[in-house]
């Protein structure tokens, strides 16, 4: 019953930097996910406390019930469904590879032979990179933060990064020093997660709020604010 959430306070775990979905601006967490969850909470009458933990740390905090919800550009996967319950999907995403803007050697996965690539611990980008490592003969290093991944690519400690394409595209559009060199690999949709079998009321409230946001056009306004009209 979504009404059971009224007046309650829930802890929301999120990634540290995953623009345009979550990032800091003037000391405040902003981005698509942050606007969605704040607006849902307001509509449903519950309060939230946002914790910027990092992606893998947020999932661990959810598993151990230290947070009630994760919203972190988190892809709905069958494997994760064994551990978490997901809201309705709210954004189609997938994986892509980027290299330093001044790198003209790496144009496809084949050019990765003998090289090191970087991905985020516990992410679908990491899973994808590892799945193809043998085939193309590269090594995968995992780190916790997107910002670390991008720095490693720019400093040459990794030749490429596997990350979600809306996030890579947004970074490139902000001149983050990277460029995208491979096609998009569609890889499911984002959902908000609660621990499996817990917080059914909260999940119902999230789904109710989300569908209100979609039907009122507010969802589209939020997406357009961060990604432009065709986001
Ligand atoms: N969408 C990816 C996943 O769910 C990455 C999420 C993230 O890095 N915040 O694994």
Protein model, in words:
- By secondary structure, the chain is an alpha/beta fold.
- It folds into 2 domains: 2-90 and 191-227, 3-Layer(aba) Sandwich (D-Maltodextrin-Binding Protein, domain 2); 94-187, Periplasmic binding protein-like II (D-Maltodextrin-Binding Protein, domain 2, 3-Layer(aba) Sandwich).
- The chain has helices at residues 32-44, 55-63, 78-81, 124-131, 133-136, 146-155, 165-173, 200-216, 218-227; strands at 9-14, 23-25, 28-30, 47-52, 69-70, 84-86, 91-100, 116-120, 139-143, 160-164, 178-180, 185-190, 193-195.
- The longest helix is centred in the last third of the chain and has 17 residues, at 200-216.
- The radius of gyration is 18 Å and the shape is globular.
- Belongs to the binding-protein-dependent transport system permease family.
- It is found in: Cell membrane.
- This is Glutamine ABC transporter permease.
Bound molecules: glutamine
Shape: globular
Low-pLDDT residue intervals, each spanning 5 or more residues: none
Q: What series of H and E elements makes up the topology?
A: EEEHEHEHEEEHHEHEHEEEHH
Number of domain modules: 2
Query: In CATH's first tier, which class of the largest domain applies?
Result: Alpha Beta
Through-space gap between termini: 33 Å
Radius of gyration: 18 Å
């Amino acid at each position: 019953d979504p009404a059971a959430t009224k007046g309650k306070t829930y802890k929301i775990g999120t990634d540290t930097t995953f623009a345009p979905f979550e990032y800091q601006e003037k000391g405040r967490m902003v981005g698509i996910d942050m606007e969605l969850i704040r607006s849902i909470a307001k509509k449903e009458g519950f309060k939230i406390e946002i914790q910027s933990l990092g992606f893998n740390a947020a999932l661990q905090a959810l598993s151990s019930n230290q947070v009630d919800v994760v919203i972190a550009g988190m892809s709905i996967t069958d494997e994760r469904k064994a551990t978490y319950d997901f809201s309705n999907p709210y954004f189609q995403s997938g994986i892509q590879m980027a290299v330093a803007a001044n790198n003209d050697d790496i144009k496809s996965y084949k050019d990765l032979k003998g090289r090191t690539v970087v991905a985020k611990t516990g992410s679908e980008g990491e899973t994808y990179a590892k799945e193809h490592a043998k085939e193309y003969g590269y090594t995968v290093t995992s780190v916790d933060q997107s910002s670390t991944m991008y720095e490693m690519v720019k400093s040459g400690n990794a030749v490429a990064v596997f990350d979600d394409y809306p996030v890579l595209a947004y970074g490139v559009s902000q001149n983050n020093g990277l460029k995208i060199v491979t096609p998009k690999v569609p890889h499911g949709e984002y959902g908000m997660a609660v621990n499996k079998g817990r917080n059914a009321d909260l999940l119902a409230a999230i789904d109710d709020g989300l569908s209100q946001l979609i039907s009122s056009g507010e969802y589209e306004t939020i997406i357009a604010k961060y990604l432009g009209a065709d986001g």
